[in-house]
Amino acid sequence: MREVLPQLLEWWERGESVGMGTVVATFRSAPRPPGASMLVGPSGEAVGSVSGGCVEGAVYELGQEVVGTGRAELKRYGISDDDAFEVGLTCGGILDVFVEKVDRETFPELGDIAADIEAGRPVAVATVVEHPDPEVLGARVVLRPDAVVAPLPRGFSQRMVDAIRDDALGLLANGRNETLTYGTDGERRGEGMRVFVWGFAPRPRMLVFGAIDFAAAVARVGDFLGYHVTVCDARPIFATHTRFPHADEVVNEWPHRYLEAERDAGRVDQRTVICVLTHDPKFDVPLLEVALRLPEVAYVGAMGSRRTHDDRTQRLLEAGVSEDELAGLRSPIGLDLGARTPEETAISVAAEIIAGRWGGSGSPWPPGRAGSTGSVMVVTPEECHDRPVGPERSSWRCDARLDGLRRARRRGADRGAPRDPEELAAFSCGERRGGH
């Protein structure tokens, strides 16, 4: 919903009724992740996407119908359906799409939720997408980390709220969207009720230390991947917004002091990535002493040649950093792609961050699982029936690779498959520069 929220909020504030379809579960090679939404506007406008073009027509028609009847509906689209070819999802994927009517009456909490998202305050929205009681279908509860749910929302018992709250806040902490299954009254081991949870967490942070040309490229790719990017340098002449237009913040401060302050303020968490590009011991060593001792952080990488790395490692050991703490440092930073330019180096850093996030190896696809043609994986005819030719082929090949990566992840063939189109782009560019 995040990507269509501005338009949805505009219609909501005007008192208009909108049909909203949301992907709540995916199986196999579904092209969009849970949480992707499409709107059917009051004048017939279509905004957003649930499948990258495969089933939008069917969801559009259902959205119009739901606005008219006011009855929410959960619909499954996939190759196993009789109408799969008709709606265009012929590559083996399956989508569960929940379609509901949204207006001030059905979704009175939307304004407050939008304000939380805009302010960067974490908020989760749990919606009942399947239940034998039609009066409960579509009921929702809004959950915030330190807030009590009172009074109980329509359709919810205290037992339901208690069960959903614990699970939803866990998803929120990781910024994830997921469908959960319970008994009809919230029993954890039961079945009959499915609840979709949107976890609207603030964007994960990327902290880039060192105001150099490589930092500008890393900031740009970090912004592309959805990070809130901060560039920090102790030299005010270099740390300027003009030099780093893709950074959300540019901070003039000694790196280790800034990181200590952010840690103490609780603004560094398990999703934060730290890129140390200063390769100057007077900055690197005190900064890495702090970074490598953080209780929760997703990634710490430091730039420098192997000689610089060896010298830095010795200095850190002498400063009291343990071998176990040093094991958390990725240095030299980035995957070995043979990169030369700042932009190529930024791609290698992004690829290493993505691989670390999902447990990937960063290696090429093994022979027999997928063939490689430049930057794309060619799937088998059984996996995708229709291969366009001409101008449309380029976009199809990217979609086919994305489908294949997701399918491999679900089959356990490669836990490191990228999850989003932006991550796929980073890996694709990286493959083109590979070979060293």
Question: What tags apply to this protein structure?
Answer:
35% helix; alpha/beta; 5-stranded antiparallel beta sheet; 436 residues
Helix-strand pattern: HEEEHEHEHEEHEEEHEEHEHEHHHEEHH
Q: Treating each run of at least 4 consecutive H or I residues as one helix, how many helices?
A: 13
Largest sheet features: 5 strands, antiparallel
Q: What is the first-to-last residue Cα distance? A: 41 Å
Into which percentage range does the β-strand content fall?
15-25%
Outline: elongated
Protein structure class: alpha/beta
**Roughly how much helix do the residues carry, as a percent range?**
25-40%
Spatial order of strands in the largest sheet: 3-2-1-5-4
Number of strands: 16
Q: Give the low-pLDDT segments.
A: 369-417, 431-436
Rounded mean pLDDT is 82
Care to describe what's here?
With 436 residues, the chain is α/β, with parallel strands linked by helices. The chain is 35% helix and 20% strand. It has 13 helices and 16 strands. It has helices spanning 5-13, 56-69, 84-87, 110-119, 158-173, 213-224, 255-264, 281-291, 306-318, 323-326, 342-358, 393-411, 421-432; strands spanning 18-27, 37-40, 46-48, 73-78, 94-102, 123-130, 140-143, 178-183, 192-200, 205-209, 228-233, 249-252, 273-276, 299-302, 371-373, 376-378. The strands form four sheets. The chain has a five-stranded antiparallel beta sheet with strand order 3-2-1-5-4, sandwiched between helices. Helix 8 (281-291) links the parallel strand 13 and strand 14. The model is unreliable at 369-417 and 431-436 (pLDDT under 50).
